[in-house]
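Example record

Each entry pairs one chain with its bound ligand, 2-phosphoglycolic acid.
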Amino acid sequence: MKLKVIIMRKRLAAGNWKMNMTPSQAKSFISEIKPLLADADSEVLFFVPAIDIQAALAAAEGSNIQIGAENFFYEDKGAYTGEISLDMIRDTGAEYVLMGHSERRTIFGESDEWINKKLLKAIEYGMKPMVCCGESLEIREAGNTLGWIEAQIRSAFTGVSAADAANVVIAYEPIWAIGTGKVATTDQAQEVCGMIRKLIADIYDADTAEKIRILYGGSVSPENAAELFAQPDIDGGLVGGASLKTSFEKIAKA
Ligand code: PGA
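Structure tokens for the complex follow.
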């Protein structure tokens, strides 16, 4: 008899502070939320601005809170004024790095090609990558959501091995739900996250698809988190606005 091995994916509650919090504010916020998150069963992570990383890491020391970088450049080093390399981030002790967020794509012009380069570089540096994808309202209304997401994922994972892909976290964030208070319905979120898992099985294999974690992001709040995270293909959330408040505790425990 062949036994099916069930892989339990560890839930992940990730905050994305965006361009908020000074280093001093980062220090006091992490110190304040640290005891509240101590008994969370999920993995807890905050993506913070680069200048806050060290203060946040120092405040999080000895706790279950992980700190990640919201952005980096894919070159190793050199004449890239204002940019931050993975070598610099890794040296701080931060492990997670975020890429492909819709704000980076639309405001700063980051292309699918860049996101692929960033993912390959993050893997090379042994970081824990989180790759975002998501459609605009226009694409959704035209009925092109699944094709759009598939193209973003296929491009981001070009040249990535199955073993490395299994350790990547994917965050599905419909652009129309980001910062708008207009959360996707659980059916909409599950449909796309389920499609992404099938796509990973198609690109790689069923085992990789079972292992990879897929998050939902876009107006996640303490009120809607539990229902979203109860969906079979949603392994947690990427949380913007609500990660700036200590009530993020409720999302991490949802
Ligand atoms: P939001 O942002 O939770 O404020 O909608 C989510 C994100 O941009 O990651």
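The radius of gyration is 17 Å.
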